[in-house]
Design a protein that fits this description.
The complex is a heterotrimer of chains A (513), B (330) and C (318). In chain A, the strands form five sheets. In chain A, strands 6-9-10-3-11-12 form a six-stranded mixed sheet, sandwiched between helices. In chain A, strands 18-19-20-15-21-22 form a six-stranded mixed sheet, with helices on both faces. A four-stranded antiparallel sheet of chain A has the order 2-1-4-5, with helices on one face. Chain A is 33% helix and 25% strand. Chain A contains 18 helices and 22 strands. Chain B has 330 residues and is mainly alpha-helical. Chain B has a two-stranded antiparallel sheet with strand order 1-2. In chain B, strands 3-4 form a two-stranded antiparallel ribbon. Chain B is globular. The relative contact order of chain B is 0.21. Chain C has a seven-stranded mixed sheet with strand order 7-6-8-9-10-12-13, sandwiched between helices. A six-stranded parallel sheet of chain C has the order 2-1-3-4-5-11, sandwiched between helices. About 5% of the residues of chain C have low confidence. The chains are: A alpha/beta (513), B mainly alpha (330), C alpha/beta (318). Chains B and C meet through helix 3, helix 6, helix 11 and helix 13 of B and helix 1, helix 2, strand 7, helix 7 and helix 8 of C.
Chain lengths: 513, 330, 318
């Protein structure tokens, strides 16, 4: 139960955004969004992946300066041109990837950008004293001369908050602050938030976790697909209604439901765990068990931190041998400890960032499309360019790839065409199991449809597909079954009939249905 | 051919490298040192002089394409020269023993560099810098700090002389009616082998992929560590060939041989147009770079340009060549 | 962190290996009965990277070998001034009877040498001088004199006229400049014409390249004068490959297994010894031990090695 706000009449807002519209090229990410935050409240900003929350915050923080709309702070219209500008206006953002500089001292970090100096020489002693003062306000007793990287994440977060306070911030934005904290640390953070609230700050809190929203929210604003859906005091938005607002009735363009082609069991994971940071740290995937049949699409749903991508990477051998549990392919147990072993076993992974990890942008279409299958295409080691070109053309033909020739550099293609090249590469390896991580991210609608059609063809050919996507309509249309992950654990499984957006989101947020 | 395709050919990396070479040759035609530039002998000697550096540049291309660098090639030349001289002159080994032994030693040193950088994940700069010091030390240790020559010391302190081994004579030899050095032929064989590996073999495609995006290559099943070790071992192998040729040409094994050669090799690769970031370039470009620097050197030499002037001019030209490449990247 | 240890170990290993290869313990023969008194001589060499310095140590060792009462301890500073200072201090504290030093640099080694003198240890300085005069004896060669001797020999050999190529050592170094100036002094007034000069930086491959350029430019070359024997050797190979057999070659340094060997093999026509002073140092040391007076400075003469006298061990020049 959250504490009642201090003021009783609705006061003048501390920060107000109106008519915010933001475009990235042809894609409109925010459309006429409004938001207002009052002094002395904890205002939760909620929405699914891709709803536009981060973009809105970045506009307020001066990171995106090109937008339509109006920002007012304490009634005055402002237009922050940089994060430093925003800080001067009293807005502080505590990002998920903390923006402290590891090797620098706590004091240096707190005063970064406003280092007290005389004729260029840093006044170290007075800086340290001031830093000690701010850090002390949070009840933290640490040596401010130590480099920040020596401290655990929880302390670093507090240092960020101290930095915000030292900048005399009135509006403090926290983006998923508890993702790396344990329970006692979360309590400390919430106590801190209460004291900030008591000082008259406005805390804008972004989270996916229902339990947190229920604990601290005074008011909640919901965004969906770049639109402002509504703002209401927390008591008026119980979990079920909140989820409904987040998911909405319209599911976007309707895409005809695929014909299911379920076959024999193809992949089975039993008590599968993935430890990306080594066996002594927390696993990203924790004892997950499920199976997928040939010709079936299993949608893997989960919000940030759920471990879905890590499951794919672990299964594919990208983390080496840092996995536990059993993996069975067509009822044969397999040990996959490297991508090469995965490919040999018939598992393929389309990563969620084609430019960073999916394609070699300096190589041609043909080179990329054949990269994972070269041992077969070049027996004895010597390459057969004609064979490679033929393979690339065969694979890309059904995808309607638009390019002048197979020798074009992949870096010059559009996002949709690049994705098709990546898909061609994986289809070339004749996979038995195809893992697709955000296959339509950053792709225009026409290309999306083409990829949906390809999914249809692949299932007809008997490939077992696992699909991660943050677009609910896509998830619902393509998946035969949906498995939901929450914090690395399997939270729920739904058949196609049972799968409904509210139920999925609830499970992803940790609510049992 | 239409003008537009001429233009795009000229703007390509090969086009620009060729242009640089043609400019240098034009300078030679103008500053021809009383006609010396027109003699066949001058061109034969230019190629001879550039060949040892060129062999290093072949191996360096492989390493740079996969995103690394090899600073140890110069020292490995010294080590290989000492080994070759010791084996061929003092121990009287026949060619079929000397040559494989030297090549194996070079490949081994290179493989060690490769294991340290690819397997132990030490930065290539640091790993090969360490090998540079180590190989030079080994060369001095094996030779006792002196050149291994045809003068053999007797017990009483006098010297007797042995013949220059037939292997050395065969290498430091002219063919084609005296118009081409054997060393140049060996260099061209190196170019051919490196080209085959990089352009025609699966391993070469792996190297390009690793240099272009190592993580994407890894996640596409490319055997990254093995491929990289191979590249460094190949660099060591080419260095060994260069050292053998150097020893043959000097008729002795000098532990100091090859000092500073690594920078020349890198300059040749860079001027040719292969990117230091990796993932782009090739042996053909390197060959153009070898010729460009080789001819530049020769033109300065036949015109007896004083040392200070040579250094300044060479430096300016290298910077200019690299800048013109960066400007028009398609 | 672990990965950074590897290159460190490589470097350490290589330094140890190079160090191990060079400093061998001094021979210690006692002939017959107990020698009257053993003198310990400390020899501080600035580096053993140059063959000429290896030769210097060899000369010291050989000269001392025929005097069983002498024991020489060698220390190699590996071209590190601080290391050499430490070595001098070690010799002082172990109270050697005499110190021979070939310093890396004059300034930093002046004070340690002075301290040795103050504690009563005589000091012989070889090849590079220290500042001031707090030492017992300086023994060194005169590069200008050697260059001049070479020039004069060339004038005589060519009968006063001819076309000569000069291949110079690193012209930013004193020896290179001295040899060049001396050579020009030696040929002054004659009809010897230097048609081509180039800086080959003491290196054989560079000399070969420069010689090739000279050969392609000039159809007629009488003689090549190189500032060191490796340079002359490289020029010789270039000429041989070009089939130009009637050129004479002159070098400097005359190390027994290099320059002298080249003259014996007919590769060079003459070479001039750049003496190390090692033998003279031992001679001087013996005089000091006997209590005889020694000069403050000994300028070593050079030795000419050419076809006529190489079998006899060359001819000394004043």
């Amino acid at each position: 139960m959250s504490n009642p706000p201090i003021q009783i009449d609705p006061p003048a807002p501390l920060v107000r955004l109106t008519g915010i519209t933001k475009r990235f090229g042809p894609v409109t990410v925010l459309r006429d969004v409004q938001f207002e935050g009052r002094a002395g409240e904890v205002h939760v900003l909620a929405g699914e992946n891709g709803a536009g929350k981060s973009t809105l915050i970045k506009i307020l923080a001066g990171i995106h300066t090109d937008f339509d709309g109006r920002i007012e702070i304490e009634g005055r219209e402002v237009r922050p041109r940089s994060p430093l500008d925003a800080a001067a206006l009293g807005v502080a953002v505590i990002h998920q990837e903390l923006s402290l500089i590891g090797p620098m001292s706590v004091a240096d970090n707190i005063f970064l950008g406003r280092t007290p100096a005389r004729a260029g020489f840093v006044r170290e002693r007075s800086q340290n004293e001031a830093a000690r003062h701010w850090v002390g306000q949070l009840g933290l007793e640490i040596d401010v001369r130590q480099p920040v990287e020596r401290f655990p994440v929880a302390a670093r977060q507090q240092i960020e908050i101290a930095k915000a306070l030292s900048q005399d911030a009135r509006v403090i934005v926290m983006d998923e602050p508890t993702s790396a904290l344990n329970a006692p640390e979360v309590n400390t953070l919430f106590a801190l938030i209460q004291s900030l609230r008591a000082r008259g700050c406005c805390i804008i809190y972004i989270t996916h976790k229902m339990e947190e929203i229920e604990r601290i929210a005074d008011r909640i604003t919901v965004l969906r697909d770049g639109h402002w859906i509504g703002t209401a005091p927390a008591p008026q938005l119980p979990a079920a209604k909140l989820i409904q607002w987040m998911v909405g009735r319209q599911l976007g363009e309707q895409f005809p439901r695929r014909a299911p082609h379920p076959g024999a069991e193809r992949l089975r994971l039993e008590n599968f765990s993935v430890f990306p940071s080594g066996f002594s740290s927390r696993p990203a995937v924790d004892n997950v068990t499920f199976s997928v049949r040939a010709g079936e699409v299993l949608g893997l749903a989960g919000l940030q931190g759920s471990g879905a991508s890590e499951l794919f990477l672990g299964l594919f051998g990208a983390y080496g041998a840092a996995t536990r549990g059993q993996v069975r392919l067509e009822n044969q147990e397999v040990r996959i400890a490297s991508p090469r072993q995965a490919i040999a076993a018939g598992v393929a992974l389309l990563t969620n960032d084609r430019k960073a990890t999916g394609l070699v942008l300096s190589l041609s279409i043909a080179a990329n499309a054949t990269l994972a299958d070269l041992p077969r295409l070049s027996p004895g080691g010597w390459r057969r360019p004609a064979r490679e070109r033929a393979a690339a053309e065969t694979m890309t033909a059904p995808m309607r790839l638009r390019a002048a020739s197979m020798d074009v550099e992949v870096g010059a293609l559009s996002g949709g065409n690049q994705q098709k090249v990546a898909l061609a590469k994986w289809l070339q390896t004749r996979p038995r199991v195809l893992l697709l991580d955000e296959p339509t991210r950053g792709i225009d609608v026409a290309a999306k449809r083409e990829i949906y059609q390809l999914v249809e063809q692949w299932t007809a050919a008997g490939i077992a597909l696992l699909l991660i996507t943050s677009e609910m309509p896509e998830l619902l249309t393509l998946s035969d079954r949906v498995a939901v992950l929450h914090r690395g654990r399997l939270a729920a499984e739904f058949s196609h009939a049972e799968a409904a957006p509210e139920a999925i989101l609830a499970a992803a947020m940790g609510q049992s249905a | 051919m239409k003008t537009s395709s001429w233009k795009s050919a000229a703007a390509s990396p090969a086009g620009r490298a060729l242009l640089a070479l043609l400019l240098v040759i034009a300078a030679g035609l103008i500053f021809n040192a009383d006609g010396a530039f027109f003699k066949i002998g001058t061109h034969r000697d230019t190629l001879r002089q550039a060949s040892v550096y060129g062999m290093l540049a072949c191996g360096m291309t492989l390493v740079i394409v996969c995103g690394g660098i090899d600073l140890a090639v110069g020292s490995m030349v010294g080590l290989s020269a000492v080994c070759a001289a010791q084996m061929a002159i003092h121990w009287n080994w026949p060619a079929w023993q000397t040559v494989p032994a030297c090549l194996a030693a070079g490949a081994l040193c290179g493989a060690v560099s490769g294991v340290v950088t690819a397997g132990l994940r030490v930065q290539p700069f640091i790993a090969t810098l360490s090998m540079m010091v180590l190989a030079r030390g080994l060369a001095k240790y094996a030779s006792g700090g002196m050149k291994v020559s045809t003068a053999v010391r007797n017990a009483d302190g006098t010297y007797h002389y042995v013949e220059v081994p037939p292997l050395f004579r065969a290498i430091d030899h002219r063919v084609l009616g005296g118009n081409l050095s054997m060393v140049t032929v060996i260099f061209l064989v190196c170019v051919l082998l490196a080209w085959l590996a990089l352009s025609k073999h699966r391993w070469g495609r792996y190297l390009y992929a690793i240099g272009g995006n190592e993580e994407a290559a890894r996640l596409s099943g490319v055997p990254v560590i093995r491929a990289k070790i191979g590249a460094y071992a190949a660099s060591g192998l080419f260095s060994a060939v260069a050292g053998l040729c150097q020893a043959a040409q000097e008729q002795q094994g000098d532990p100091e041989a090859g000092g500073g050669y690594e920078l020349v090799a890198i300059a040749m690769v860079v001027i040719g147009g292969t990117s230091l970031m990796g993932g782009r370039g090739g042996i053909g470009l390197t060959l153009l770079g070898v010729l460009t620097i080789g001819y530049l050197d020769k033109i300065l030499s036949i015109n007896a340009v004083p040392e200070a002037g040579r250094l300044v001019l060479t430096g300016i030209i290298i910077v200019a060549a690299v800048l013109t490449q960066r400007r028009s990247r398609t | 962190m672990r990965a950074q240890i590897i290159p460190f170990l490589f470097t350490l290993a290589s330094i140890l290996l190079t160090g191990c290869g060079q400093s061998k313990p001094a021979p210690n023969e006692a002939k017959g009965g107990a020698p009257p008194r053993k003198y310990v001589i400390g020899m501080s060499q600035c580096n053993l990277g140059e063959p000429w310095r290896v030769q210097m140590n060899e000369d010291v060792r050989e000269a001392a070998a025929s005097h069983p009462e002498l024991k020489v301890v060698f220390k190699d500073a590996q071209n590190d001034t601080l290391k050499q200072r430490a070595h001098v201090e070690e010799f002082i504290s172990s109270k050697v009877d005499l110190l021979i030093i070939s310093p890396k640099e004059a300034q930093p080694l002046t004070e340690p040498v002075a301290r040795a003198i103050d504690t009563g240890i005589p000091v012989i300085v070889l090849d590079r001088a220290v500042l001031g005069d707090k030492y017992t004896c300086f023994i060194g060669a005169d590069n200008t004199k050697i260059g001049r001797a070479a020039g004069e020999w060339i004038v005589k050999k060519l009968g006063g006229k001819g076309k000569v190529v000069e291949l110079m050592g690193l012209m930013t170094s004193i020896p290179g400049q001295d040899r060049h100036n001396g050579f020009r002094q030696g040929i002054a007034g004659s009809d010897i014409n230097v048609i081509f000069e180039a800086d080959m930086k003491w290196l054989e491959p560079e000399a070969r390249q420069e010689m090739e350029s000279a050969l392609s430019r000039f159809d007629h070359i009488d003689l090549v004068f190189a500032h060191n024997d490796p340079g002359a050797h490289g020029a010789y190979l270039a000429a041989k490959a070009a089939g130009r057999d009637n050129i004479l070659f002159v070098g400097i340094d005359a190390l027994p297994q290099e320059g002298v060997a080249y003259v014996q093999q007919g590769i060079l026509d003459a070479t001039f010894r750049y003496p190390t002073g090692g033998a003279e140092a031992i001679d001087t040391a013996l005089k000091i031990f006997k209590g005889e007076p020694v000069p403050k400075k000994i300028v070593l003469g050079t030795r000419l090695f050419d076809k006529s006298n190489v079998a006899a061990g060359g001819a000394a020049l004043p």
